[in-house]
């Protein structure tokens, strides 16, 4: 009985980490689906979101709810701004140029916050205060419950948005064929902006949840979750929304199991190993479609 | 025996049957035309022949040896060269280097010889330069050998692409709409060049064209495709007078 | 006879069009064809290299102050790093963020080697350079095989992840750090790094290493293999169609790049005397990328100049030090936007820009 409880406990921990990865992975996947680029700076949005929350709550003494909404809005606008300034002029440029620009943006965000907030980690108390819930002998922390619920709600809304709204179908159309979408009267630029806004907003939410679990702010805090979420997106099939969710959850469970049974340092290597394995065995990911290059 | 023997070739993309039951038999030295309306599956056949796509069914024999399942690079080494509908040159390399890159399987030296500049490097490079210039001369590109490929005018880019394909010393050369975007004068001139290289390099040519009149001028045999299937196969006269072909091209 | 006629006809038609040929076509110098490595041009280059060494020796021994003397080895190491990364980014067209990771492997392998061997100094150092380079190359090979078959973006992320992983793995390792006076083996925790590494790296070593790496890369890109590598960059589908085994040559370029990053790592370790895994992080990879991008992708000369200037600049202009990384980020974005964005064409009327940023072909 003990063993079963232990396993369930670990599984929930895994889902907890996994849901944060899933939220970030969604941003990678949506942007990839539409702009056909890997937004290297996506992980750093998490960091910017965390600092924004810190500024709103600690420095400006705002109520938590207002601060959270402002943080999400700030990141969404940041996402749009980045796209407009750095990526939009490069739509027709070779992929290598876009990739280098994205790395430049990521590096810019990290070093700008390094200059503003300095390298020393800033401690930050959790803003989510919910009591733990006990089911039988399994205790689930309030934070975990909030994380899971928030993730679930975000995904439900996103799925509805993509499948049921006009803007959502515009998004799907643009990811299918930019030129054709334009001919159908879809405003491609606005759709791409919207995608960046949604992806960045999700990253902000992930950042808030991440910060609640690892309550310390550093300019480089977004890099590692960013890379792991990318692995999750590839695992699920990059460009595929349900794939990003599945990949995130799976990766969280894999990582958590490795942490519990092997060691924390090795768990990073294992996550990386997962990426290599996926690339070797099924580069299109679990739910991805195989893309045929037009010759 | 035919140089290229294709039987029951077919490929599906998802539910779409892009090419179905296509048979081709091209004799050595032949100038063979592949025509058909847009979306008839012409380029797909080229991609199947060069291993870019793997056929869902059918066989492809080059000189009696099956090339199904081989990679694009292996098929090139087996003796099929090609050009592309939308020109694919090595744009940031010189005209000469474009052709020399294609000679890589014929004039070989090791990485070490290249880095250490051993005598073998110099002799092989000289040989490569000589061969590449000979090929460029056929296309009258020898004066532009030091231009970047992207700086050539359009018509010359098309020629350079053919020159590069020839440098791999193919038995069979696939030309994908070589006259696309050319004016009637340029087209006529290109057709002369194609005949010329067939004779000079002693190879077999399979070419895709839209323009029926034009292709019937130089091809000895023509296959007409429509919706991925064979519509007609024969000499230009036979094909041009085939009622099915006339219907497909002119409508009812 | 008929053939000749057609030929002439072609000639005629084209020569008419010829007059309209692009005026800004970049014409390379026509190379005189050398028959062997022993030719005048190479002799001149050799003399320049030797003269360069004596100039460097004179400067170091008589002219430079301590601060600048201490910069000679870092400049050389950065040149090696920039030139080798340029092979991967500029000539192969694949983005690697793993140069710091390969450097780290080289630095630690080299340091462990010299700490545990008791050979005469220069021999020991020479062997350490080779061993460190090979070790980095082996890792490059292992990463390259799965990743280089795929589209470009993956390589960037995988090599970035690799750099992080290498760091955390070295952190957990126990490293043999030579013997103490009693003859007992000293074991150090990886996170603490290694110290007491002999500072073998002097200006002679770095000069030789930098010159060799430049010659190797320049000769490589001007050889059969180099042409294959650049053709893959320009159009991998066309490259396959002329019989090039793309992943094989991608791996070749990547492994050679990793080898020289390892070499630079060994030299770096034997210059600083103490190394820590955290010294070789993401920032370092970006630094090197900035050398390549600023110098011009595909330009060896550019890489050398950019590496030299960007190593000197923070030392000369102390106040900009804090903003260095931010400037680097802006450099990356700005150069890409200038070179590739839609407003580039508008600026191109101004010839200066195209002169600065045009892709330079390295001539022999």
TrEMBL record, chain B:
GO terms for cellular component: plasma membrane. Coiled coil: none annotated. This is ABC transporter ATP-binding protein. CDD domains: ABC_Mj1267_LivG_branched. Residues 4-252 form the ABC transporter domain. Pfam families: ABC_tran, BCA_ABC_TP_C. One of its GO terms (biological process) is D-alanine transmembrane transport. The keyword Secreted does not apply.
From TrEMBL, chain C:
Its main location: membrane. It is a multi-pass membrane protein. Pfam families: BPD_transp_2. It comes from the Bacteria. It is found in: Cell membrane. The chain crosses the membrane at residues 38-59, 71-93, 100-119, 125-147, 154-170, 203-221, 251-268, 288-313, 325-343. The keyword Lyase does not apply. GO terms for molecular function: branched-chain amino acid transmembrane transporter activity. Keywords: Cell membrane, Membrane, Transmembrane, Transmembrane helix. GO terms for cellular component: plasma membrane. This is Branched-chain amino acid ABC transporter permease. It comes from Mobilitalea sibirica.
